[in-house]
Structure formats: C-alpha cells, structure tokens
Amino acid sequence: MDSIPGRLAILDIDKMLAELRLEREQIEEAILTLERLARGRGRRRGRPPAWLKDAAAGTLTLDDGDDVTTISSEPRRRGRPPGSRPKAHAAEAAG
C-alpha cells in the first residue's frame, strides 16, 4: 500500500508534463503566426487599414465613445502637398 500514493504522484507529474508540452507547442505556433503577421507579405496594394497606418506612424488613436482623438509625435502638415500646384500659377509666382 505504500507504493500506491507514490505511484499516483508520478502519474500526476507525467500528466502535468504532457499537458505543459502540449501547451508549449500551442504557444510556439501562436508566436510563429504573430511573427508572420508582423512581417507581412511585402508591399500590399491600396490603402492600409487605419490601425496599421497609425502603428507605422507612431500615432495613438483614442476612441471615447462619440469622438475619436489622434495623438501623433509629429506636427500635422497643412495646405497643399508639394507639387500639386498648377504649373501656370507656379510660373506667375516665380516670375
């Protein structure tokens, strides 16, 4: 009868080790999946999702129910982008 409690403890440890190994495999698969997502599949066509653009730009978007606030590390540009000015108007300004 002395050997039965010791044997149960060994079986419990073996069972725990098997469960932990299975859990480790699942965690490794999750890590690989997340790494693939983070790496991406190269340049994609079209407009990136807002969360991806914010993450790449280092901005933080806060959603407080009704209004959305964006916090950026760089100042916002205003006015026309360079090169979008009509050529005739640019010649008048230069001349």
Verbal overview:
With 95 residues, this protein is mainly alpha-helical. It folds into two domains: 1-42; 47-75, no CATH class. The chain has three helices and two strands. The protein has helices at 3-39, 50-57, 87-94; strands at 60-64, 67-71. The chain has a two-stranded antiparallel sheet. The termini are far apart. The model has no long low-confidence stretch (mean pLDDT 76).
Quick structural summary:
This protein is mainly alpha-helical. 56% of the residues lie in helices and 11% in strands. The model has no long low-confidence stretch (mean pLDDT 76).
Descriptive tags:
two-stranded antiparallel sheet; 56% helix; mainly alpha; 95 residues
What structural class results from the helix and strand content? mainly alpha
Tell me the radius of gyration: 29 Å
* Count of discrete alpha- or pi-helical segments spanning 4 or more residues: 3
Strand content: 5-15%
In this structure, how is the largest beta sheet organized? 2 strands, antiparallel
* Secondary-structure element series: HHEEH
**How many domains comprise the coordinates?**
2
Strand order of the largest sheet: 1-2
> What is the count of β-strands?
2
Query: Mean pLDDT across all residues, rounded?
Result: 76
End-to-end Cα distance = 106 Å
Q: Unreliable stretches, pLDDT < 50, 5 or more residues?
A: none
| Overall outline | elongated
Helix content: 55-70%
